[in-house]
Specification:
With about 325 residues, the chain is α+β, with helices and mostly antiparallel strands. The chain contains twelve helices and five strands. The strands form two sheets. Strands 1-2-3 form a three-stranded antiparallel sheet.
Length: about 325
């Protein structure tokens, strides 16, 4: 971000996500911190580098972005205009906030202002959960305007948790784009690793960038369209979460589920889209989804309340498909 005048002051805000504990110490599930940044840059030719920059960062263990991003703005302005005393007062004020209630709308005091926002349901948070899909309030239609023609392809990449790299001119651009992209698969939570913003100095830059792929409707309409598409995509799994006439729910078997797609038929909203699908078939798209982290996280949540109702295993269901078998199916369907 460039500074254009002799005494220019430029403020920006963005978010990031970093590992707090190495995966080797948490059984393979790294613990993350979520940061919300208010950054101020000031040009001063008397300084060695011609300017300086400083930032106020709000850190949290859960991505309650709808409240914490505005809080970082209040904290930044308070610090740069009134100093550390104002920041200390704000910290005490925030410490007195009541515990968050999932799905509620809140209005809380912060400095000389009130912060209002909608808290997400905690089941939508990326794992591990506290017991909230990052609910950054961005206009997806505006943020993704140059990419709307590729929205269907992006949805497929996101729902199957394929690598995707977002490159932007500023931290604010990239973090907003990542939030908008993740919102395309709501209400399905995105369970794979993601970083709203990071630089080449991040320890994970090499690992993440090596597998990355460069990457007129209103935002509400766009979210509704892809929300309906995601709901249609998830509809065939519903029978595994609701007891049947015998009071039981079927056992989960990937082979049986994939085989049933042909006989049961696809939801109309999904069938219409698959005519121009980048995947070779619906089975291949579902196989990729089942093999990815989004499925395991979501399916486990939905299945937990009815685990005691799962029907006994039939002999042919004793062996489940492995990830290798699913990948073989995906490869065959893409020939």
């Amino acid at each position: 971000m460039e500074l254009y005048t002799r005494n220019a002051i430029r403020d920006s805000s963005f978010q990031f996500r970093i590992k707090r504990i190495p995966a080797s110490f948490t059984g393979g599930a790294p613990d993350f911190l979520y940061g919300y940044v208010f950054c101020r840059q000031r040009q001063d030719e008397s300084l060695r580098r011609g300017g300086e920059q400083a930032a106020v960062v709000v850190l949290a263990s859960v991505p309650l972005s709808s409240m914490l991003m505005p809080l970082s703005l209040v904290a930044g302005h308070a610090f740069f205009s009134e100093g550390e005393a104002a920041l200390e007062q704000l910290v005490s004020q925030v410490a007195a906030w009541p515990p968050p209630v999932p799905g509620s709308r809140v209005s809380l005091p912060a400095g000389h202002a009130m912060i209002s926002g909608q808290l997400p349901h905690f089941t939508l948070l990326p794992p591990p959960q506290p017991e909230v899909h990052p609910s950054v309030q961005v206009d997806a239609a505006v943020v993704l305007q140059p990419l709307l023609r590729y929205a269907w392809t992006l949805w497929q990449l996101l729902i199957t948790a394929q690598p995707l790299m977002v490159v932007g001119l500023t931290p604010r651009d990239t973090s907003a784009a990542v939030a908008a992209l993740m919102g395309l698969i709501a209400p399905l939570p995105y369970a794979a690793d993601y970083r709203p913003y990071f630089t080449i100095h991040d320890p994970d830059f090499v690992a993440l960038s090596r597998s990355g792929v460069p990457a007129g409707a209103a935002g509400r309409q766009l979210r509704r369209h892809f929300g309906e598409l995601t709901a249609a995509f998830l509809a065939p799994f519903q029978r595994y979460f609701e007891p049947g006439a015998d009071g039981m729910v079927p056992r989960w078997c990937p082979q049986h589920f994939l085989a049933s797609l042909k006989s049961a038929g696809l939801p109309p909203a999904l069938a219409a889209r698959l005519a121009s699908n980048a995947f070779a078939s619906a089975a291949a798209l579902y196989a990729a989804f089942i093999a990815g982290p989004n499925f395991a996280h979501w399916f486990g949540q939905q299945r937990r309340p009815v685990l005691h109702l799962v029907e006994p295993a039939a002999p042919e269901q004793q062996r489940y498909a492995t990830t290798y078998q699913l990948k073989q199916l995906l490869a065959m369907d893409n020939r």
